[in-house]
Amino acid sequence: MSPSEASASGSAGRRRKSSESDEAPATAGRTGGRRRAAGGRRKQQPKRFKGLIAVVVALLVVALAALGAVLYMQGEDTGDSAGAAPQTRPATYRVIDAGGMNDVLATREADSRPLNEGELFGERSAEISSQDIDFTLRDSELTEDCAAAVWGQDIEQALAAADCTQAARATYVADDYFGVVAVFNLADVGSSRDVATAMAEPEPAPGEESPAPEDLPGFVLAPSGAEPFDRMGSGYSSSDAIISGHYLVVVWVQPTESESVDDRVSLSSPLVALSNFRDPLYRRMVQLEAELGGTGEDTGTETDPVGTAPESDAAVPGAGG
After folding, report:
1. What letters, b where the CB count within 10 A reaches 16 and e where it falls short, cover 135-147?
2. Among the residues of the chain, which ranges form H helices?
3. In sequence order, which residues have a C-beta less than 8 Å from that of residue 299 and are 6 or more positions away?
4. How far is 149 from 169, CA to CA, in rounded Å?
5. Judging by beta carbons within 10 Å of its beta carbon (0-12, 13-18, 19+), is residue 249 exposed, middle or buried?
6. Which among 262, 276, 275, 265 is positioned nearest to 321, based on CA atoms?
């Protein structure tokens, strides 16, 4: 082979390298084509994502609508079970007039300090144990709107005439009973007696029927209609209105298992037990006596100035729920 041929052969080798180099752009071009294709897919992805987002949003809207409906229904159920207390009366009602407390706490002028929640619903009142019955505080409320604590126009008017400035109410539960207590801060003892009388159901004249529900004078409202107080008055229940100076204390109890106003039982024990809710008023009486230097004592004597205190708690008929 001549040198010229060797040179030609070498040149041919270089041309092959050049030829291989020429193929590289073609390969790059194919690679670039794939990138362009990928770029084309990226342009299409937002369309698919938009469709997917639309589906997700639609599902969320449906889910939220369903959840809203469920919450609304639950709200309706909660409102029914724990809403306003029923407008009912006890099957029996009597008025009790306390002794020395009426003398010491005779007027709000003499006992001018307003009632407060700590005094009425504090630790001392969280549980009331008496007569082998243990009552536990459930709900409580202290308000200056006395009309909100009762139902019935007659009682609302009586409270207004008695210059009621505060109404305190609480619910209590025990194993076999549940009850409501209320304290009204009135002008004087006479006002307390007037409101207690207004709460009594008028006795029908001989031959007359009992008053229709819309003609009843009304009564105390429980501060909550949560179970079991949604049944207050629908079973057999009894109430004492205790004249305690210028305060009127109302105690109302019902057996847990009672379902009819005809299930007549003696409720003296739970009434006596729950009447210990008056303890803050006794403490006021003792404090006021000490300030005045008096020696009066509440003897526990009970009289019947309005002629409605029976020998048993079944003697005065009322209006069951």
Report:
1. bebbbbbbeeebb
2. 3-81, 100-104, 117-121, 123-126, 153-161, 189-199, 268-274, 279-292
3. 99, 100
4. 8
5. buried
6. 262
As a whole number, mean pLDDT of residues 49-59 equals 68
Question: What's the predicted TM-score (pTM) here?
Answer: 0.68
What are the residues facing 255 on neighbouring strands?
177
DSSP state of 315: S
Torsion-angle region of 41 (φ positive above 0: left; ψ -120 to 50: alpha; else: beta): alpha
Instruction: Look at the chain and report how many structural domains it folds into.
Output: 2
Is 318 inside a domain boundary?
A: no
CA distances in angstroms from 308 to 58, 223, 275, listed in the order given: 68, 26, 18
Range of the domain at 13: 1-81
In a domain, 114, yes or no: yes
Q: Which of 65-79, 147-161, 285-299 has the highest mean pLDDT?
A: 147-161
Q: Which residue has the tokens 């070498």?
A: 10
